Amino acid sequence: MASALESGGKNTGKLSLAGDQNNVDTVNKQGNRANKRRINEAHILQAAESIFAERGYLGATTAAIAEAADLPKANVHYYFGTKKALYQAVLDNILTLWLEPMQDIREDADPATALTAYIREKMRYTRERPSASKVFANELLHGAVHLQNHLETDLKDLVEEKARVLTSWIEKGRIKPVDPVHLFFLIWASTQTYADFDVQIAAVLGKNKIGKKEFSTAEDTIVQMILATCGLVPDNSVLNQDK
Amino acid sequence: MASALESGGKNTGKLSLAGDQNNVDTVNKQGNRANKRRINEAHILQAAESIFAERGYLGATTAAIAEAADLPKANVHYYFGTKKALYQAVLDNILTLWLEPMQDIREDADPATALTAYIREKMRYTRERPSASKVFANELLHGAVHLQNHLETDLKDLVEEKARVLTSWIEKGRIKPVDPVHLFFLIWASTQTYADFDVQIAAVLGKNKIGKKEFSTAEDTIVQMILATCGLVPDNSVLNQDK
DNA sequence: TTATTTCTTGACCAATTGGTCAGGTTTCAT
DNA sequence: ATGAAACCTGACCAATTGGTCAAGAAATAA
Predict the structure, then answer these.
(1) What is the ipTM of this complex?
(2) Protein CA A85 to sugar C1' D29 (Å)
């Protein structure tokens, strides 16, 4: 399949950020190219994320993405070349979002505080970016062929680094012994399930969709579970954002 | 789309189970129709589960399923009519498997024993039927349009019944207070993640695939976590099947 | 203004896909 | 043995899909 770069006129090296045309009228009217490009690309990426989440990579059609972005299909191809390249772009954005919250788990932090904050951050992502979570889940579910390198390098390294933090906490008796890597797996599974499998959860709860109250209960239950697993008591300074 | 019944000659009401031809030779040579039908249908269902797991409902092709079943495509359509009907058949089988293990959570059981057994049973399903787990996950991920009724009736009723068991355990002080319904969500998420997102887990563990040892650690970690959440001590009479 | 580059899009195409069907083969009941 | 029912499958078809393209519009640079 063609590479993203052999398509359209994208990436010509120009950086004319508003240039000298930065009076309000011109900018508001999206009078310059770079601006319009940014807006269109963002629209397409957002539409693509939503369609890929709904139907998966193979099930999604560029026509559906174009319609969701309110642009002609040929325009979508002009900006991103191929469906695969567009999917990669969506996926790269998501992976960045996905890795971010882990950074705050540090040796010098308080275990209960850091773990609680990590869970609450993961739940914020679940609430605010359910489509992103679903695209990522779908990619993993079908073998992560568009993500394999990242998993085996970026993700693996990051998890190993953070697992060492947990191990050191265990050695110092700050948390009870528990397999640190598997603890991460279980935090991911627990938080993401509320985005990825929301229909199942909503159905069991007898709701049309998961509401604020249910997200709040979910979040508290997960925190309770992970802290109990580590033999910790709650840190109430890290607030549940749904309350 | 056409209903499954308007296709082929399936379901003619005949029940000629081996009839009077039940000498060994005849049966071994699959000499009778009902037998061959059963075998072919099973092959197709198995192939379909595997292909649907790999590619999702929309991404799967009847040609790929036929090839995996080592049958001509027209034959697959002869047996199951449409792709949708075949998918429904696969899904119905899976839902049965999925609901089964929950039955053993009963009021009169020992909480630690029952919860441990439930987790170990769920992990057995994860290890032995990863494709089934993936098909189910994929269906939920994309809105459960082929499963909605079951979720809102069968599953909801069963979970509510079993949640009442947990509630009664809580009231009697046999386990610590925890939201029973969300506890189920977290057990499902924790156990299924090792099937659905196996590539991610394998990548982080630096393995090609999750091995016996890792499954064993996973299982023990989940049991440890759920029991800690419920304020219970391990019941070592329920053995980890991977050890 | 004018030349150049970038952007836009309707129309089109080759490949794939779910599904059909006719005509032949096998199995079964009588 | 024989007719009927069930089974099998190569060949085919209409619909969908990812992707292309040419011709024009719009923005920018000279």
Answers:
(1) 0.89
(2) 31
